[in-house]
Amino acid sequence: MGVVNVTPDSFSDGGRWFEPGAAVEHGLELLDQGADLLDVGGESTRPGAQRPDEAEELRRVIPVVRELASQGARVSVDTMRASVAGAALEAGASIVNDVSGGLADPEMPAVVAGADVPFIAMHWRGHSAQMQQRAQYDDVVAEVCAELTERVEQLLARGLRREQLVLDPGFGFAKLAAHNWTLLAHLEQVIALGLPVLVGTSRKTFLGRLGVPEGTDPRPPLERDAATCATTVLAAQAGAWAVRVHDVASSVAAVRVVAATEGAR
Fold first, then answer.
1. Active-site entry in 60, 125, 203, 204
2. Phi, psi at residue 6, to the nearest 5°?
3. Verdict on whether the full-model pTM lies above 0.70
4. Active site includes 204?
């Protein structure tokens, strides 16, 4: 899953693809590099980010979704708003990727159930401005699995079919570095919940702190692709459904290496 950020404040690319034309061009490049899906989002969810209003999110996202879908891309819309999800589906998106798992907007489950499209539900404990204050766990793997299981039950009760659901453990969302590493080390427990799993570690801060002296700044996001690629290998070995990445070519190569090795085994 290639990331197409249509935001001025993305942590990873600083608004490089903010204009619709640039975003579409970038999405097409990611397809050429081997992306199976393009995830188009108009709201930064980095820690501390402020939300755009609904009209601005629609302005950012819909033209890009429409153009990429018209050119044959399989598009997921990365949004927490039911109105944006509905408009994106009408514009040609075929997947809804909601980092809140439908908790941020009570209308989201009805929109997705009515459209009968795949729904990616992430583990979420609150919006970006407050989420790191909620990064408190006794057993992060057990608690993430339990909260995802509860969310699945709630979504099924709202009319979604189990076959529509994909889970995301939410690396970096209400999680400190140690929580992320523990989740990655035990990713098979999330996959054992029995639903497809999306892994989104790409360029996140916990990767940027590897090999950096204590008390100094992490490596810049653009210098975290090699570490991201290593997490793609781990995700593929664990049996993840997809990885959501900024640098598609390296992760495609990583997945091919894992597949070839498994084939030889």
1. 204
2. -110, 60
3. yes
4. yes
